Structure formats: structure tokens, C-alpha cells
Automatic annotation (TrEMBL):
Active site (record annotation): 87 (proton acceptor)
Family statement: Belongs to the thymidine kinase family.
GO cellular component: cytosol
Enzyme nomenclature, EC number: 2.7.1.21
Root EC class: transferase
UniProt keyword annotation of Kinase present: yes
Keyword ATP-binding on entry: yes
Keywords linked to the UniProt accession: ATP-binding, DNA synthesis, Kinase, Nucleotide-binding, Transferase
One MF annotation (Gene Ontology) recorded for this entry: thymidine kinase activity
Protein name: Thymidine kinase
Catalysed transformations (reactions): thymidine + ATP = dTMP + ADP + H(+)
Length: 222
């Protein structure tokens, strides 16, 4: 029986690395797979990991119909044993339904990787549908950490270094401004930081925590 599996974690938890490792392990045993992604940081039609691995992939736009794609490929004689789907939070709910149908009706394993919630702590539609439909949802074991040392559970967005909770849902970016410069969107530097829930609620990024600890007057937490 084929499975629809959703592997999730915050940004920087190792999802793309695991996606590429999963692809490698299955391909090494002679299974035929296809790699998909959407809005990868490194560019269009590629899966990239912060550990340096990169692979070509097929870019998923909202118009892609996974069911039609798969039926067409099989009809043309292709063999497909599995799909690896990175950045699956950006897929539409309909596309996740199509992937579930591919699993059930065509016996193709589908491994999806993605974050659950956006910078506002709201579920991405693709991730929500995956939680609803997947045979298994697994949280990655590698813990991304908040600056306080607790497990990071939420993704914060900063604009010019200040945490924001309003804006476009999709803005490609990275978590480590020292290694990867923030993305300039309309002359605003956009970056991300993973935080525990308490510090996300309080808007307390590492930079703000440093500023507060250096200020002469202790600020009351709200
Ligand atoms: N210099 C480094 N040395 C060791 N591990 C690193 C380094 N930089 C990043 N990582 C690890 O890479 C992983 C992030 O990989 P990636 O697959 O790109 O994450 P995700 O797709 O979840 O955002 C994290 O587990 C992090 O610990
Ligand atoms: C929280 C959040 C993230 N994004 C973007 C930022 C990155 O480009 C990807 C996540 O990639 P990763 O491999 O998990 O690090 O998603 C976004 O567009 N909107 C958000 O709210």
C-alpha cells in the first residue's frame, strides 16, 4: 500500500535535507521518483538544503494538476514509484487532494515536506490539507531552537529587523542573516527567525531581547 506522508517542522529544521536524503535512499534501491518544489530560496525548479545539497526539481505552480500530470506520464510509459514534494505548504489544498488520489488510485508513495504555519501563526492551506489527509504527519526530530534555548515552534518574519504580523503570506526568505542577506522586498529587508510560542506571542526576537537586556530600565513584558 502506498502512503501520503507529511514531514514538518519550523524553518531550518532540516526538511529539504531530509527530502533530498529520502530521494537518494529510494533512488539508490532502483525506485523511480520525481522531485517537486515551489518557491525554493535558491531559485525556480530546485530543492536546496542549507547543508549544501541541491537537486533539480519540477516547479509547482497553482495550475499544476498532479492527477493529470501523473496519468499523462504513466500513459506515456513512464514508471513512477514515488513523489518527493518540498515546500508543500505552498501547494493548494486541491493539489494535496490530487496527491492523495495519486497515492490511493495509482499506488505511488508521496513524501511531502513543509512548514505548518506562516509568520502570523496561521496554517498554510496546503499544510492544513496535508494534516487532514496524510496517512502520517511526522514532526522532524532535529529541534530548531528559539534564542532562549526552548524548542522553536513558530516562524517569525522581520522587516528591517522588526518582527511583523501583517503582510503578504508568501515572501521567500531565510533565517540566518549573517550567512544569507535578508531579501529586499520593495526596499524592505525581509528575514525570518524561529521562536518558541511565548516569544512569538511577545514579539521578542533575539535582537529585541538583546536590546531589552541592554536598556537601563527593565521593560515590562505584555
Ligand atoms: N553549518 C552547519 N553545520 C551543520 N548543520 C547545519 C549548518 N547550517 C545549517 N545546518 C543544519 O541544516 C539544517 C537546515 O537544513 P534545511 O534542510 O535547509 O532546513 P529546512 O528545509 O527545514 O528549512 C538544520 O538542521 C541545521 O541544523
Ligand atoms: C513563515 C513563512 C515562510 N515563508 C517562506 C520563507 C522560505 O522561503 C520558505 C520556508 O522555507 P524553509 O525551507 O522551511 O526554510 O517559506 C513564507 O513565504 N511565508 C511565511 O509566513
Amino acid at each position: 500500500m502506498a502512503d501520503l506522508i507529511f514531514r514538518t517542522g519550523t524553518m531550518d529544521a532540516g526538511k529539504s535535507t531530509l527530502a533530498l536524503q529520502t530521494n537518494h535512499n529510494h533512488a539508490a534501491r532502483g525506485r523511480r521518483g520525481r522531485l517537486f518544489t515551489s518557491h525554493d530560496r535558491a531559485g525556480t525548479a530546485m530543492v536546496s538544503s542549507r547543508l549544501g545539497l541541491v537537486a533539480d526539481a519540477e516547479e509547482v505552480g497553482p495550475e499544476l494538476d498532479f492527477w493529470r500530470y501523473t496519468v499523462d506520464a504513466l500513459t506515456q510509459g513512464a514508471r513512477i514509484d514515488y513523489f518527493i514534494c518540498d515546500e508543500a505548504q505552498f501547494y493548494t489544498a486541491e493539489q494535496i487532494d490530487q496527491l492523495a488520489k495519486v497515492v490511493d488510485e495509482l499506488q505511488i508513495d508521496v513524501f511531502c515536506f513543509g512548514i505548518l504555519t506562516d509568520f502570523r501563526t496561521r496554517l498554510f492551506p496546503g499544510a492544513a490539507r496535508l494534516v487532514e489527509l496524510a496517512d502520517r504527519t511526522e514532526v522532524l526530530q532535529v529541534e530548531a531552537l528559539c534564542w532562549c534555548g526552548k524548542r522553536a515552534t513558530h516562524n517569525a518574519r522581520t522587516e528591517n529587523g522588526v518582527m511583523v504580523t501583517e503582510g503578504e503570506v508568501i515572501v521567500v526568505g531565510d533565517v540566518d542573516p549573517t550567512e544569507h542577506p535578508p531579501v529586499a522586498v520593495d526596499e524592505v529587508d525581509v528575514a525570518y527567525e524561529v521562536l518558541c510560542r511565548q516569544h512569538h506571542r511577545r514579539g521578542m526576537t533575539a535582537a529585541r531581547a538583546r536590546a531589552v537586556s541592554l536598556s537601563p530600565e527593565p521593560l515590562p513584558f505584555t
